[in-house]
TrEMBL record:
<dbReference type="InterPro" id="IPR016032">
    <property type="entry name" value="Sig_transdc_resp-reg_C-effctor"/>
</dbReference>
<dbReference type="InterPro" id="IPR011006">
    <property type="entry name" value="CheY-like_superfamily"/>
</dbReference>
<dbReference type="Pfam" id="PF00072">
    <property type="entry name" value="Response_reg"/>
</dbReference>
<dbReference type="GO" id="GO:0003677">
    <property type="term" value="F:DNA binding"/>
</dbReference>
<protein>
    <submittedName>
        <fullName>Two-component system response regulator</fullName>
    </submittedName>
</protein>
<keyword id="KW-0238">DNA-binding</keyword>
<keyword id="KW-0804">Transcription</keyword>
<dbReference type="InterPro" id="IPR058245">
    <property type="entry name" value="NreC/VraR/RcsB-like_REC"/>
</dbReference>
<dbReference type="InterPro" id="IPR000792">
    <property type="entry name" value="Tscrpt_reg_LuxR_C"/>
</dbReference>
<feature type="modified residue" description="4-aspartylphosphate">
    <location>
        <position position="54"/>
    </location>
</feature>
<keyword id="KW-0805">Transcription regulation</keyword>
<keyword id="KW-0597">Phosphoprotein</keyword>
<feature type="domain" description="Response regulatory">
    <location>
        <begin position="3"/>
        <end position="118"/>
    </location>
</feature>
<dbReference type="GO" id="GO:0000160">
    <property type="term" value="P:phosphorelay signal transduction system"/>
</dbReference>
<dbReference type="InterPro" id="IPR001789">
    <property type="entry name" value="Sig_transdc_resp-reg_receiver"/>
</dbReference>
<dbReference type="Pfam" id="PF00196">
    <property type="entry name" value="GerE"/>
</dbReference>
<dbReference type="GO" id="GO:0006355">
    <property type="term" value="P:regulation of DNA-templated transcription"/>
</dbReference>
Amino acid sequence: MIRVVVVDDQELMRVGFRMVLGAQADIDVVGEAGDGAQAIELAAQLRPDVVLMDVRMPVLDGVEATKRIVAAGTARVLVMTTFDLDEYVYAALQGGASGFLLKDTQPDHLVSALRAVASGDAVVSPSVTRRLLDRFVGTGGSPMRDTAELDVLTDREREVLVLIAKGMSNLEIAEALFLSEATVKTHVGRILAKLELRDRVQAVVLAYETGLARPGLG
């Protein structure tokens, strides 16, 4: 069973999420919270697999709650937002969220995304994540992070990281580089290990912040 805590300051939203997720045989909603502070407490007490986290909440917002939950290692976090271009979402990704979805996403998409996060994957929507990065990483100037961080990568691993930043799947990367999907998976694993990244979301953010990938290109 995938154990989930739902966090949203609107009770109606929590009810809706609970109904959708509770209808799945492999998902158990073990708790609900109305703000970030409650979310941190529940995550520590219940140790869920995933916290479904709203970002705009009273007392403590979802960004800070995400950072603390991820830092404590109590759960993975999937962020939900009303607006696709939201500075809070980018901050949540930087803080360790395993991805995000819009609140009006289709129920089956929500369920599949939650399962992916629970299994250790990340939810990277190429279009929405790209728009966020375009807006909040910036379109020019100096990189936000030292490019020397990438020196541990081989030329091939850099190529793969650029394609990850474009939101491409392992299969799409394999086709683009004329490699097997298994080989790409190995490269991705090495990239994450060498750069000490948790998942593809962090890889996307790092690629943009170091200037390896640039908004509006590719």
